[in-house]
From TrEMBL:
GO biological process, one term: SRP-dependent cotranslational protein targeting to membrane
Name assigned to this protein: Signal recognition particle receptor FtsY
Biased composition (Basic and acidic residues): 51-68
Keyword presence, GTP-binding: yes
Topology in the lipid bilayer: Peripheral membrane protein
SMART domains given in the database record: AAA, SRP54, SRP54_N
GO molecular function, one term: GTPase activity
Amino acid sequence: MELILAVVIALVVAVAVTSGLVISGRKKKQLPPAEPPSTPPTITAPPAEPHVGDEAETPREEPRRTVEEVGLPTAEEAAEAPAAVEDPVVAEAPAPEIEVPEPTAGRLVRLRARLARSQNSLGKGLLTLLSREHLDEDTWEEIEETLLTADVGVAPTQELVERLRERVKVLGTRTPEELRGLLREELIALLGDYDRTVHTESPEDTPGVVMVVGVNGTGKTTTTGKLARVLVADGKSVVLGAADTFRAAAADQLQTWGDRVGARTVRGPEGGDPASIAFDAVKEGIAEKADVVLVDTAGRLHTKTGLMDELGKVKRVVEKHGPLDEILLVLDATTGQNGLIQARVFAEVVDITGIVLTKLDGTAKGGIVVAVQRELGVPVKLVGLGEGPDDLAPFEPAAFVDALIGD
Ligand code: GDP
């Protein structure tokens, strides 16, 4: 009996060991060895379709919400007013409600690092190519490619290469300084000699009126808010018209910008008539004797006729008070050819008088400045170089080129 029992036990053990080996062998093939012990199933297998509410419970979201709720300054804002935090005298006084924006003169020079970071490849690439001992056909082709890759556009690229070839030939031997000087001159010439003033002075005794147009998402509302700061920094009083009634948050967003610099925002109900808001904004500007009225518009590119009807109506209604002094088209520099197509559509619908190129901090395709000016025959007047409140700079060709090639 004992012998039988011993044999049965021995058999059971043998089977268990054998099947264990097989299973562990299979397991080893299917899973990496470290995974099963370190990641319990509840965590390694999150629901395939997370619920909206789940997101808010993640530890990353919570501090962000809290900061926004209690209104603590963002990193950008904190950096703007370090004295208010550090200086106890300032800290005791009630916090000033209205901010003083940075002066606008020389902003592009101050922000050039933003450009240099993303545009480096264009300017430095060109300089390196031009410095080659033998400027053969292949090198000129590479120079052309570099310009095309940066979205300069075909015709301006060919013009520039032709000019460079001519001048390099005349120059004979070339020092790096000579080459830099030559490239600088030619790039500046390519950017053209335009009047880049944002016209905010009305010829009549009424506020200057600026209409801001562009596709939603390009940074139109942000730009309108930043432009209000530019004008306030230059000593002007501003009224804002929130005529983008299509995008739900646009009016709130604009009002926040306005409140920060003490500019009143005229707004209407969500989905309301943009033209009547624009009309009321100019009326308010006249009543307040404001210097400038900025009108943000809706930028849905549904159909060209729809866009034309909407913007045309806003323009006509505003012009009942007096002429529009500036129509700025906001374009996202990162959208390349798409941006140019948008520009074309808007230019057919309204008479654009200036271009604002946003997000130049996020692209190496700075050549779009040249391309869009050629396309519309209208100057780039302002450039957006970041999300900070004072990251909108008047466009200066020389400072722009210096940022590209270094000086
Ligand atoms: P709208 O729909 O055209 O009114 O777009 P918004 O004004 O809401 O801007 C869309 C996004 O672009 C926001 O997150 C802005 O902060 C961002 N933005 C606007 N201008 C710039 C810029 O010059 N640089 C960067 N990096 N972001 C920008």
